[in-house]
């Protein structure tokens, strides 16, 4: 891949002050060196979390990142899992999800302390292909098959992924061209993790990886159309307004309405949306239902409305 393509990818980052997540691996190392080479207008601060999962290897990663930042003259914030974990709120039991939650908590602390715009991460096109394949295997719908977004917000933290159009090997070619070494994470070779097994399955199958990437782009285009075409429902609305919509638009309208009523976005599962649509389409369905976030939706006189769950006996004339 030409240097121009890499430069174009880095040019997507808005001017300002940004944290850069750097693990010591090739992807994040390439991101940092590209930013320093092509974006002198950015004020960068590296954030490195030592996961302490590989003993001396993890400590060597930390030392590598500190040395790299010193050579590039970029300030670096380092934290260790045993510093983050005790102060974190309830963490997922799954190891990967737990580490991800702690990374987000660490990035938020760095961004907040230094008044940064957000964090730049090095997810690339091959990561995107692996993500989409994993979601296909889980039976995700079109919204899940969009894959990762180039810009996302998690718990108030802005996350940018400027390398999503760049293939993994191109980043390594860049590092070799500038004689920059990187660290290899030995756990990336373990078949214990699904992500690693998917990486092996896609290795050497560029056409399959590219097809998955294109599928993600098509699903993202469909999602944009659905979001623009789905009607916005009022605070209270007549059941026909939702029941008459084609399924794909009804689902988006229902999702948007539930989120606006206070149902947490992360808890709006397909079944949650299905329950609301059923209340609108089937007069024989229960006239009241509890939804995540302690929200109760009621149907009265052909009108659906929601209120916070306080006292069940006081709701909707019960």
SSE arrangement:
Layout: H1 3-10, E1 17-21, H2 26-38, E2 43-50, H3 56-72, E3 76-80, H4 81-84, H5 95-113, E4 119-120, H6 125-138, E5 151-154, E6 157-160, H7 168-177, H8 194-202, H9 206-229, E7 237-238, H10 239-243, H11 247-261, H12 270-281, E8 288-291, E9 295-300, E10 303-308
Parallel strand pairs: 1-2, 1-4, 2-3, 4-6
Antiparallel strand pairs: 5-6, 7-10, 8-9, 9-10
In short:
By secondary structure, this protein is an alpha/beta fold. It has helices at residues 3-10, 26-38, 56-72, 81-84, 95-113, 125-138, 168-177, 194-202, 206-229, 239-243, 247-261, 270-281; strands spanning 17-21, 43-50, 76-80, 119-120, 151-154, 157-160, 237-238, 288-291, 295-300, 303-308.
Structural description of this entry:
With 318 residues, the protein is an alpha/beta fold. The chain folds into two domains: 3-123 and 149-188, Rossmann fold; 231-317, 2-Layer Sandwich (Uridine Diphospho-n-acetylenolpyruvylglucosamine Reductase, domain 3). The chain contains twelve helices and ten strands. The protein has a six-stranded mixed beta sheet with strand order 3-2-1-4-6-5, with helices on both faces. The chain has a four-stranded antiparallel beta sheet with strand order 7-10-9-8. Strand 1 (17-21), helix 2 (26-38) and strand 2 (43-50) form a beta-alpha-beta unit. The longest helix has 24 residues, at 206-229. It is elongated.
């Amino acid at each position: 891949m030409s240097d121009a393509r890499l430069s174009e990818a880095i040019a997507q980052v808005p001017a300002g002050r940004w944290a850069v997540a750097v693990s010591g691996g090739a992807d994040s190392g390439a991101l940092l060196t590209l930013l320093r080479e092509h974006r002198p207008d950015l004020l960068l601060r590296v954030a490195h979390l030592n996961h302490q999962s590989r003993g001396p290897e993890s400590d060597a990663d930390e030392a590598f990142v500190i040395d790299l930042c010193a050579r590039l003259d970029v300030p670096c914030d380092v934290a260790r899992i045993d510093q983050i974990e005790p102060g974190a709120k309830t963490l997922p039991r799954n190891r990967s999800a737990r580490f991800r939650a702690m990374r987000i908590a660490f990035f938020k602390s760095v961004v907040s302390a230094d008044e940064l715009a957000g964090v730049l991460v090095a997810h690339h096109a091959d990561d995107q292909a692996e993500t989409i394949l994993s979601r296909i295997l889980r039976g995700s719908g079109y919204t899940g098959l969009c894959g990762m977004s180039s810009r996302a917000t998690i718990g108030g933290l802005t996350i940018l992924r400027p390398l999503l159009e760049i293939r993994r090997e191109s980043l390594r070619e860049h590092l070799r061209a500038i004689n920059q070494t990187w660290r290899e994470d030995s756990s990336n070779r373990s078949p214990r993790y699904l992500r690693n097994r998917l990486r092996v399955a896609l290795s050497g199958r560029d056409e399959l990886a590219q097809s998955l990437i294109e599928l993600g782009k098509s699903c993202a285009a469909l999602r944009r159309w659905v979001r623009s075409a789905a009607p916005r429902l009022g605070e209270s609305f007549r059941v026909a307004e939702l029941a008459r919509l084609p399924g794909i638009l009804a689902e988006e309208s229902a999702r948007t309405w539930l989120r606006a009523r206070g149902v947490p976005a992360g808890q709006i599962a397909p079944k949650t949306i299905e329950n609301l649509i059923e209340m609108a389409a089937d007069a024989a369905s229960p006239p009241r239902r509890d939804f995540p976030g302690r929200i109760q939706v009621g149907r009265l006189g052909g009108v659906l409305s929601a209120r916070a769950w306080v006292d069940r006996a006081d709701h909707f004339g019960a």
